[in-house]
Design goal:
The complex is a heterodimer. Chain A is of the alpha/beta class. In chain A, the strands form four sheets. A five-stranded parallel sheet of chain A has the order 2-1-7-8-9. In chain A, strands 4-3-5-6 form a four-stranded parallel sheet, sandwiched between helices. Helix content of chain A is 41%, strand content 15%. By secondary structure, chain B is of the alpha+beta class. Helices cover 25% and strands 38% of the residues of chain B. Chain B is built from one helix and five strands, in the order βββββα. A five-stranded antiparallel sheet of chain B has the order 3-2-1-4-5, covered by helices on one side. Classes of the chains: A alpha/beta, B alpha+beta. Chains A and B meet through helix 2, helix 7, helix 8, helix 10 and helix 13 of A and strand 3, strand 5 and helix 1 of B. Bound molecules: iron/sulfur cluster.
C-alpha cells in the first residue's frame, strides 16, 4: 500500500515539475472532499497541485427557491414532508425544517419509507423531498413507479434531482473557470458508468478520472490526471473498476429515463444549467408536487453575503468567504455548504481551519 | 450523500430483501439489480442495492468508512449531524 502511495506521489511530483505550471483538479463528490481532508492528501501534494471542491454535494447545489418551497409545504396542515436527513438543517426563509419543529416533517432513510408514510396517512398528502444526483434518483423513480402501481393518490415528489455531467460542462463553458481536470465521483459513476464522461473529454479536452474513496486510489487518480495533462492526452479512465463499469447500472438508467426528463433547472450559484435538472415526465405529473399544489418554480438568490455559489464553482476556497468562521459555522450555518457534512465549507471548517490536517 | 455502503443480502422476496452489514440489518429493495441473489454482497444507497461487489472490495470499504466516520467524530465531536443517506 505504502509503495503505491509513494509511487503515485513521485509520479505527481515528476509530472508537475515537467509541466512547469499549476494544476487545478476539481472533485465533484462530497465524499471525496471529506476523504481528501481525512487522509491529509493535500499536504502530500506539491504546492502547484490544487484541489477544488466542486458541486458534488446535492444539498449544496439545491437552489434556495426550492428550499423555500419545501418550507412553504411544511407549513401546510394537509401535507407531510418526507425528507432525507441531510436536508433538515438547511436554512430557508423563517428557519429550517428542523427549527420549524413541526410534527409533519419526517426523516426517511429511503424513498420507500416515503411511500409507506403515504399509505399510513391517507388523509394527508406526502411530499417527498427528492434531491440527489444519479445515485439517488433511481430510488425516487422506483417510489413513483410503486405509487403508480398502487394507485396512491396522496403521494408526490418535489424533484431537484441533478445530473453531474451537465454541471461539469457548464463549469467548463464559463470562461472564468480554472479547472484542468476532474476527479469523477465514485458512486454516481456506479449508475452512469464511466463512459458518461466522454462528452466532457471530447468537448473540452479535460481528463476525467473516476476514483474510489481509498486515499491510495485518490492519489493514483491525481497521478493519472497529472500524467494525462503532461502527455496532453485527456481521457476517461476509471480506477474504481471494482464497482464502476463503462455502462453503469443500465436498469437504474432505464428507470430514470422512464420517469424523468431533463430541463434547464436552477442550481445554487451556477444558475440554470442546460438539461442539468430532472423533472417528472408529463404522464406522471400527478405525482409532481409543483403541479399538485400549483407552485411556480422561482429561482432565488443565496442568503446575504454567502458565497456558496463561488465555492461550488471552485472560484474561491471557503475561508475566502467573509462569513466563514465568523458568522457562519456548522452550528450556525448561513449557507448549505456549511450545513451538509459533505459541503466544502463544513469540511474546511472542521478539518482544514486549524491548518493541521490529519496524517495517516 | 452519494455514498453507498456494502452489505450482504440475507433474505429476498421479489425485489424486497434484508441486508446485513457487520450485524446491522435493514430492509432494502433490489429493483435496480434484477439478478441479485441471497448471499451476494451489494452496494446500498438510500435503501436500494445499486451494484454487486466482491468480498475483498466490501471489506476494504467497510474499514474505510469506519475510519472516515471515526475521523469525522474525532474532529467535530459537538456537531449534531443527521443521518446521511
Ligand atoms: S462560509 Fe457560510 S456563508 Fe460563506 S460560502 Fe460557506 S456556507 Fe456560504
Amino acid at each position: 500500500m505504502l509503495e503505491r502511495v509513494d509511487k503515485a506521489k513521485k509520479q505527481i511530483h515528476n509530472t508537475v515539475d515537467a509541466l512547469g505550471r499549476s494544476v487545478n483538479i476539481m472533485e465533484v463528490c462530497g465524499t471525496h472532499t471529506v476523504a481528501i481532508f481525512r487522509s491529509g492528501i493535500r499536504s502530500a501534494l506539491p504546492e502547484s497541485v490544487k484541489l477544488l471542491s466542486g458541486p458534488g454535494c446535492p444539498v449544496c447545489v439545491t437552489d434556495q427557491g426550492y428550499i423555500d418551497t419545501v418550507m412553504d409545504l411544511a407549513a401546510r396542515e394537509d401535507c407531510l414532508i418526507a425528507t432525507y436527513g441531510d436536508m433538515i438543517r438547511v436554512p430557508g426563509k423563517n428557519g429550517s425544517l428542523e427549527t420549524m419543529n413541526r410534527s409533519n416533517v419526517h426523516v426517511v432513510l429511503s424513498s420507500d419509507d416515503a411511500v409507506q408514510l403515504a399509505c399510513a396517512h391517507p388523509d394527508k398528502t406526502v411530499v417527498f423531498v427528492a434531491v440527489g444526483f444519479e445515485t439517488t434518483t433511481p430510488a425516487t423513480a422506483v417510489a413513483v413507479m410503486t405509487a403508480e402501481k398502487m394507485d396512491l393518490s396522496n403521494f408526490c415528489i418535489l424533484s431537484a434531482h441533478k445530473l453531474v455531467v451537465p454541471a461539469m460542462q457548464a463549469l467548463l463553458s464559463d470562461t472564468k473557470n480554472k479547472i484542468d481536470a476532474f476527479l469523477c465521483p465514485g458512486h454516481v459513476s456506479v449508475i452512469i458508468g464511466s463512459d458518461a464522461y466522454r462528452p466532457v473529454v471530447e468537448q473540452f479536452s479535460r481528463p476525467c478520472v473516476v476514483a474510489g474513496f481509498e486515499p491510495v486510489q485518490v492519489m493514483e487518480g491525481i497521478a493519472e490526471i497529472c500524467r494525462q495533462l503532461a502527455d496532453e492526452s485527456p481521457q476517461v479512465k476509471s480506477l474504481y473498476s471494482a464497482v464502476v463499469t463503462a455502462q453503469g447500472n443500465t436498469r437504474a438508467w432505464e428507470l430514470i429515463e422512464a420517469y424523468f426528463e431533463p430541463y434547464d433547472g436552477p442550481w445554487r450559484g451556477l444558475g440554470c444549467i442546460p438539461n442539468g435538472t430532472l423533472r417528472l415526465k408529463r404522464q406522471y405529473k400527478r405525482f409532481d408536487a409543483l403541479v399538485r399544489f400549483g407552485i411556480e418554480e422561482i429561482p432565488k438568490e443565496e442568503p446575504n453575503g454567502c458565497l456558496c455559489g463561488q465555492v461550488l464553482c471552485g472560484l474561491i476556497n471557503p475561508p475566502q468567504c467573509g462569513l466563514f468562521d465568523a458568522v457562519c459555522t456548522p452550528d450556525t450555518p448561513v449557507g448549505p455548504c456549511m450545513v451538509s457534512s459533505e459541503g466544502a465549507c463544513s469540511a474546511w471548517y472542521k478539518y482544514g481551519r486549524r491548518g493541521k490536517v490529519h496524517h495517516d | 450523500m452519494c455514498l453507498a455502503v456494502p452489505a450482504r443480502i440475507v433474505e429476498l422476496m421479489d425485489d424486497r430483501g434484508v441486508a446485513d452489514a457487520m450485524g446491522n440489518r435493514w430492509s432494502v429493495r433490489t429493483t435496480l439489480l434484477p439478478d441479485v441473489q441471497v448471499g451476494d454482497i451489494v452496494l446500498i444507497h438510500a435503501g436500494f442495492a445499486i451494484a454487486t461487489v466482491d468480498e475483498e472490495e466490501a471489506r476494504k470499504t467497510w474499514e474505510l468508512f469506519a475510519e472516515i466516520a471515526e475521523f469525522q467524530e474525532r474532529q467535530a465531536p459537538s456537531s449534531k449531524e443527521e443521518g446521511t443517506v
